[in-house]
Amino acid sequence: MFRHLREDIASVFRRDPAARNTFEVLTNYPGLHALLLHRVAHWLWGVGLKWLARTLSTLTRWFTGIEIHPGATIGRRFFIDHGMGVVIGETTVIGDDVTLYQGVTLGGTSWNKGKRHPTIGDGVVVGAGAKILGPFEVGAGAKVGSNSVVTKAVPAGATVVGIPGRVIEKDKDERSSRRREMEERMGFDAYGVTEEMPDPLARAMRSLLDHMHAVDDRMEIMCKALRKVSADYPNGDLPVLSEDDFDCLRDTDSDAARKKTREDAKVVAAAAVEPSTKASSIISAHESAKKSAEESAEEGTKKNASEPTKDSR
After folding, report:
1. Domains defined for the chain, CATH in brackets
2. Beta strands 125-126 and 143-144: pairing type?
3. pTM for this model (two decimals)
4. pLDDT for 23-78, tens place per residue?
5. In 131-246, which ranges are E strands?
6. 279: which DSSP letter?
7. Is the dihedral of CA 66, 70, 73, 76 positive or negative?
8. Is the model more confident about 251 or about 144?
9. First to last CA, the chain
């Protein structure tokens, strides 16, 4: 028991830079208090003293703001930072070196008395306010972003964000190298997010950018064809877009950056619409001129055919 206590204290120092000394950790960390009392309640639950175990769990919730059902199984070096509002259900299984932040719920989605709560693998980090609901597994080393709602299994080493939770795919080599770098530097990813984690908004913008480049290529082919038909078609080139133009998306805390992004989007949209409008106008004008020329030629032919020649007179 004392060996586990030393590990628990060491895990606090490892994952919370605000921890100053052992006495402060023992007296002022409700996550540690809830874990120690849960171990007692879990033992009581296992030997059949279920009412006493539930009573101790209720007192723990009253003192710490953390609700852990005595039937939940928790591994070693478990750490709850801040802790207020954390709820862990009866059939939850938590591995070693797991980190939870405030407001996390490990709950169920049915009234089935069997397995109805998640299984959390070793080394998982669950950000503040995240909800993991259902009897599925969150793989070892996975990270759940703050305020995410996860309702299906998460692969090992993956990162989940959003409502509903979506797995962010990354290149395996890149992901592995960045994970190793982060583990060497910090040992874990606070709140389940890092600066290296891809932003879904930036990812969507990159997809739109690729699509716009493809549209530009098609427009260029159309423009070349139109220049062959009419010399009046403007020969100006559109500004080239690149991912560097959207670097401001990476700074999501900057209102100025967001404003610039909106303005750039309007400019891009206007630039995309203008060439197609000009092309349509030129095509229409060319067709009208061609039709007028054909009508004039036809009228001239008819007139010449109706007039008698000098030789006939």
Report:
1. 2-192 (2.160.10.10), 200-306 (no CATH)
2. parallel
3. 0.55
4. 888 888 888 899 999 999 999 999 989 999 999 999 999 999 999 999 999 988 89
5. 131-133, 137-138, 143-144, 149-150, 159-161, 166-168
6. H
7. positive
8. 144
9. 130
